[in-house]
Design goal:
By secondary structure, the chain is an alpha+beta fold. It has 10 helices and 16 strands. The longest helix has about 50 residues. It holds the Pfam family DUF2213.
Length: about 375
């Protein structure tokens, strides 16, 4: 993570060649206050960052501030071997030492324009550096609470910035376009700080932004995904509700059609009633004593045949055979002795003739299903 830190320029003097030689006290120990966005925690209002002495004054940390570029304000990018000629106006010396709770850093400003600015009152130095920021709570040896700790501090450059009218009073930096996330001072120019950029993907496009910007983008993308998920759930629920309504309508239509199919019109009902009456009348003529209450049409025909010919006559017979036997019986007129006497008198036949007639009737019954009619 990249930081800046400000301090005044001390002991300024000019060389015979017009260079400005000075010393800076920068990168102090202790606690500094940052906004959450400056340290990649946009959900937090402020963060107390602790810079321990052991980290600030470690051999590697002190050595990293030797022979680094001096710039006029913080550049928008880190100073490297590829851009230092365009960005540097001087450099630091080789002997960086501890001075109380700060570093003492010797430097030389060689650019004439930058020298004039320092002489005109632009007399603060701000260190641009990187470090590892660990979010862990604790308390300093002096009893101050903190939320995060800086470790592995490594310098990149020293920037000449304007002196604040209120002196060295620090305020919380907004970090909007900051290269780093250390405190800034009252009139330190926001547009001049170097930005540590990283690449992130936004809707398939690669974008360069700061750590704070990346955190904000990540939050927005997560919010977008959550909203899209809610919309998808709403669409699924809506489709399910429509499908349920369609099923209810289809069921209602089916029930209506079924009810219509069961409704018998008047003529069909008359035909059914007449057919039933004709069947009952025929059955009573064939077998006057049969009980027909509660019987179906087929059961009535069967009962009539059994009453006349007995159960054995239709045992194991098909429904078609029984129907044919019933039709045959309903065609035979019932015996009427008085009527027969009036027609031609009483005639007698021998037993052989009667048996022959009975045999012919049985034969005709057996062949009834073939549609043949045998003469008796």
């Amino acid at each position: 993570m990249n930081f800046i830190d400000a301090a005044p320029i001390d002991g300024v003097r000019l060389t015979g060649d017009g260079y400005l030689v000075a010393e800076a006290r920068a990168v102090r120990t202790g606690i500094q206050i940052y906004t959450g966005a400056e340290v990649g925690k946009p959900e937090l209002d402020r963060v107390r960052v602790y810079r321990p002495e052991a980290e600030v004054f470690s051999d590697r940390s002190l050595a990293s501030f030797s022979h680094i570029p001096v710039t006029d304000d913080h550049p928008s990018v880190a100073v490297t071997s590829e851009n230092w000629k365009d960005l540097a106006v001087g450099e630091t010396g080789g002997e960086v030492l501890r001075d109380g709770h700060r570093m003492r850093i010797p430097l030389i400003v060689k650019d004439a324009g930058a020298v004039l600015k320092v002489k005109g009152g632009k007399r603060e130095l701000s260190a641009g550096y990187t470090c590892d920021l660990a979010f862990e709570s604790g308390t300093t040896p002096s009893g101050e609470a903190y939320d995060a700790v800086q470790r592995n501090i490594r310098a990149n450059h020293l920037a000449i910035v304007h002196r604040g009218r209120a002196g060295m009073e620090c305020r919380i930096g907004d970090g909007a376009v900051a290269w780093g996330i250390a405190p800034i001072f009252d009139n330190a120019p926001k547009e001049g700080r170097m930005a540590d950029l990283r690449k992130v993907m936004v809707d398939g496009l690669q974008v360069e932004t700061t750590d704070a910007g990346a955190a904000a983008i990540d939050k927005l993308q997560n919010d977008k995904q959550a909203i899209e998920a809610k919309l998808l759930d709403a669409e699924i629920n809506h489709a399910a509700a429509l499908a349920s309504k369609d099923a209810e309508l289809a069921k209602a239509h089916a029930e209506r059609d079924d009810a219509k199919a069961k409704i018998v019109d008047a003529s069909a009902l008359d035909a059914l009633v007449q057919g039933r009456a004709d069947l009952i009348d025929a059955a009573k003529k064939v077998a006057p004593n049969i009980e027909i209450k509660g019987l179906s049409d087929a059961a009535i025909r069967r009962a009539a045949v059994v009453a006349v010919r007995g159960e054995d006559a239709i045992k194991d017979k098909s429904e078609a055979y029984i129907d044919a036997a019933f039709d045959l019986l309903r065609e035979v007129e019932p015996a009427d002795g008085m009527r027969d006497a009036l027609r031609g008198g009483v005639k007698t036949t021998d037993s052989l003739t009667v048996n022959d007639a009975y045999a012919q009737m049985l034969e005709r019954d057996r062949n009834a299903w073939q549609g043949k009619k045998e003469s008796a």
